[in-house]
Amino acid sequence: xxxxxxxxxxxxxxxxxxxxAALTRRFGDLDIAEEAAAEAFATAVERWPSDGVPPNPGAxxxxxxxxxxxxxxxxxxxxxxxxxEAQLVYDDDPPxxxxxxxDDRLRLIFTCCHPALATEARLALTLxxxxxxxxxxxxxxxxxxxxxMGQRITRAKAKIKAARIPYRVPSAEDxxxxxxxxxxxxxxVFNEGYLATGPDTDPVRQDLTAEAIRLTRLIRALxxxxxxxxxxxxxxxxxxxxxxxxxxxxxxxxxxxEQDRGAWDAELIAEGHRLVRERLASGVxxxxxxxxxxxxxxxxxxxxxRDTDWSQVLALYDQLVRLDPSPVVxxxxxxxxxxxxxxxxxLAAVGRLESRLAGYHPFHATRxxxxxxxxxGEEARAAYDEAIALAGNTAETAALTRRRDQLGGA
Length: 410
Fold this sequence. Notes:
By secondary structure, the chain is mainly α. It is built from 20 helices and no strands. The longest helix is centred in the N-terminal third of the chain and has 25 residues, at 3-27. The two termini are 41 Å apart.
């Protein structure tokens, strides 16, 4: 990869949401913002290799995208609409801040997560507009066809335009009812960064995890007493703390039990633990993100995998199942069961999830590991093959392949 190609890739990771948000603020149209941003990046692909990478790529992309947007509006507007055209060309002054925190990307998230949109549409649109994920990446995250996801995003943008949904952070009284959808999106953005679903991207994308953490901190400043906001921030910090130990030198995903815990970020862990203790001291019944954060606090408290308090982990999963009785939570609970009651008991629990998780590669990977521990090599190999076929991330595929090959001729 050339220097220009690397710069374009980095700029897309770091600047996409900023460019789209700036254009949305100015033109008030998500379609125009997205298409102009995409055209600006396409122009960079054409020009940067020969002209060189500009000193400030983000500013170059924003300026270019603004021009692209104006060109499009000129083409689509009536010829006699000269006054509006002149305003587009000369009125570059930003509007007054529209919320308690003046952050374009936070406004964009709340716009995409408006309650007038269906939940699936909110999630998909925000992952596209704020996370910069491609339609195939989002489709994989939701286990739906690319065409279905593309239509979902298109309809969501059209509804925002037709309903004149404002581009702003909601007022203080509206925030609590809007924040749950925003947290769900930020969690998905973080997860995509922590373990990307696509085969043609970096296995771990720090730009996405950093942006999700930054935006969650801003929301916590807006809602400091909201336990789930604090819980999600703690969960992100405790997960991000392990990022540097997640990939081996050869680019293979490293499982929790094999990670070098000395490489974990002690400052992030300390902050995450403090937030978990703060919520426990509140005496308020925890929500889903708070319980997930508590589970991660137990894991990051152990200096060695053998020191993990699995009984506490299982008790927390039992609590989580009551809040979120999803098959994925049940699958993760089975991992803790394996440590306490043995792999055979856990395998039986996993088996009951097959009809609901047949297309979910962690199901097959978990089942393969349990079969391996029970010495059932042929069945383990078949389960690893299923997981490898479904996994999209190259680092995860490499780890699964190694584990399968370690079975030898069994």
